[in-house]
Amino acid sequence: MKLPGLESVERQPLNVIVYEKLKTSIVNGDIEPGTRITEATVSKQLNVSSTPVREAFRKLSAEGLITIVPWKGAIVQEFTSKQILDVYQCRTSLEELAVELAIPRIDAEGIEQLKECVKKSITCESHTEYVELNTKLHDLIYEYADNPTLMNLYNQIKDVVIHNRIVTSYSEERKRQIIEEHEAIIKHIEQKDIDNAKQAVRTHIFKGYDHIKTRFEK
């Protein structure tokens, strides 16, 4: 079986190249959800050894893009529309509570860290770095909320959230919107305005859901 969207690679840092090529093909839908992929298939098609493919599989699995099945390869992650809706409903409540708890506790250093995440996300060119910065911003709010139970609940849905952030990182229009939404959230946090901060979080998550839902329906 030949996987669509993959071309052979030149001699470069192979683990990074293999990972980025697979990720791009998965996010763009060239390799469809539910597709079984194996190290042998990818190694042969990209003309590389199994080692960089294995490393790429590990990273893609950690990001929720594939599920590794022992001795059988991996399956491209597939979420139903109901699963995605369920996650965003829960995420809205969790993040509103997180920002409410974080505002009384966050200090000037924390505000600066949030602003730095946005600043770097504006100029970064890597999809991977963008997702990491986006995730760091939200994680910082949870850290300042200082509620381990809340963090544990969030971690239960984080694989879907990260998966969707990766998908979103390929939309320049949505990324610009996210930057504006993050700036609004930070402004209200800095002003200690809990009600408007919660509203900004709600708006941000609803718009994110609408974007993913539209992608899903295509």
Automatic annotation (TrEMBL):
Keywords of this entry: DNA-binding, Transcription, Transcription regulation
Entries under Gene3D superfamilies matching the protein: GntR ligand-binding domain-like, Winged helix-like DNA-binding domain superfamily/Winged helix DNA-binding domain
HTH gntR-type domain span: 12-79
UniProt keyword ATP-binding, yes or no: no
A Pfam family assignment: GntR
Domain of life: Bacteria
Record-linked InterPro entries: GntR_C, TF_FadR/GntR_C, Tscrpt_reg_HTH_GntR, WH-like_DNA-bd_sf, WH_DNA-bd_sf
UniProt organism field: Fredinandcohnia salidurans
Coiled coil: none
SUPFAM superfamilies: GntR ligand-binding domain-like (SSF48008), Winged helix' DNA-binding domain (SSF46785)
Protein name (Swiss-Prot/TrEMBL): GntR family transcriptional regulator
